[in-house]
Amino acid sequence: MKKISIVIVISSIVVISLAALGFYLHQEDKAVDAIKTGSSRISKQIDQRKPISFLLLGVDTGADGRVDRGLSDSMMVVTLNPAQEATVVYSIPRDSLAEMADDHGGNIQKINAAYEIGKAKMAKKTVSQFLGLPIDYSVTVDMGALKELVDFVGGITLDTVIDVNLNGQVIPQGHHHLNGDQALAYSRMRYQDPRGDYGRQLRQQEVLKQVAQKIQKPKYLMNIGDLMTKLGQKISTDFTADQVKQLIRNYHQSSGEIVSSQLLGKTAWLNGSAYQIISTEDLQAASNRLRENLALPEQTLTNTETRLNDMNQAFFDDESPTTYFNVRGYNVTRYTNNTY
Predict the structure, then answer these.
(1) Could you tell me the pTM of the whole model?
(2) CA distance 114 to 161
(3) Tell me, what's the pLDDT at 40?
(4) Architecture field, domain 2-143+196-332
């Protein structure tokens, strides 16, 4: 598990905007109305400013002629603790081996398939049992919203250590000022990065960091309601409209301390497709840190993933080159070469 020292406002397009809106409450109705929010339900959790968690899902529907159009390209668990003024974010590798939280049991797939099977509700349940903590809410963002967000702040400036070439956007190594189209390509490119999906996670977080730093300037805050109106159709959540407004008022303090981390796995080849296997040690560490920020006690993680890990102790041997991982007794979906 590798810590990433970045200062991002709740590590997502939505919550960046919500935190900024905390300074301009007179615009909140216009912004919130643009988002596809959930139906009314009784919840005292947000009313009482208790710690909460949500799953951020970044989707890229229909792009690049992809086959699996319902998969979530990015998955982040976000916990907010306003009393401690703290936010903890964990990125989950999209190819992590995980049991789907469906009614059948024993359905092992890449974790990003949960969204395709049962949308955000299934993804929340799957991640909840994967990490052993409650996932209260979800926010789904079409990655295309990133383009609009970067253009809104006049572009971003960063240093890239790899060459990026995607969808006609060519960004060589070096220091660059990127517009929205370029930033989207920079955030989405995967195969040219020797770190694969892990490198893409870091690049996405780097872009969000730059946006978060710029969006808090008064000239952007004054017009953020217009931005959210544009982005509204690309954002959906099971937060209600009233809960979003309460988040704006009561949870923006959570950005006082922000810790962002990513789970790292080891590659295993199953049925012709590469999966990421997360060690029990790293799963437990992530669970402990996220539960701590939710003011919950530590709890020993016991699930299908940890049981499979116990069956495959030799797989995690640092000196072992094996990519074989025994999933005997479980169904594993075969992915095609066009799945990514």
Answers:
(1) 0.78
(2) 33
(3) 52
(4) 2-Layer Sandwich (3.30)
